[in-house]
Structure formats: C-alpha cells, structure tokens
Specification:
The protein has no helices and twelve strands. It is mostly beta strands and 143 residues long.
Length: 143
Amino acid sequence: MATRANADLKNTLIKRYAVKNTSVITAGSRVRFGATDIEVDATSGANDDTCFGTALEGGTGNAGGTVLIDVALDGHQIVAMTVGTGGSTRGLKQVQAANGVTDAPANADGTVVHTSIGIAMQTGVAGDLIGVMPINARFVCAT
C-alpha cells in the first residue's frame, strides 16, 4: 500500500471554486458543479458522469460561500464554443450538433454511437459562446 500518492500537476489546469453550502468535500474526491459556475458540490455517488475535476483540498461549505478550494480539472484547457440547437447545460457532456455543441443524450443501453467532445463549463442557449473543457470520448445510447 502506498504511503503517499504519486502526483504530477505540472500541466494541470487548476481553478478555485466555492464549496456549496453544507457540502463536505475531501481532498482527492471528485466534484461537480453546484448552483453556479463558481460553486462545486460533492458527487451524487458512484458513476456520477457530471463530475469535471478532483478536489486538491477539502472543505465544508457555508451559507456565505466563503470556503474556497482548488480543483484540478479533467482537461488541460477551456475553450469558447458556440451553442447549437437544444442548448448546453453547465456540467453536462457535450456533442456536436449541426450548428454548435449541445447536451449529449443520456448514456444508456443501445447501439447508437456518439462522440462527446467535452464538458460544458457554463450554461447557454443556441448562438451563445460558452466555455467547454474538451474531452474526446465515445459512448453508446438508444438514440
């Protein structure tokens, strides 16, 4: 058993977020967005695909939103992308539509292959520019 985890954060994109009120986050745990673009919450459990980073430190949120932690993001960059038909929701995986990015369909049984191009870091409607953290992945669903 390792006494100290190996880590190399040399090229990591690290951002500071407020811990959601009453949320308890421990160092090394996965996080997802809270109610805003600048707030993180603990995961909802196993296989939570709305996670976008790993907490580098722990904290318990308060009503004032003053507890801040550093989060290592899953990707190395955030780029501006145009939102397509259907809109984009902060924290959800994105797919390429004919006119921009949009929320990916739910991951489920099926045979239709999709390519996720990233995670929306902001919410937007068709025509908006939002920050997206590019992550290339494939998944299968019914639609």
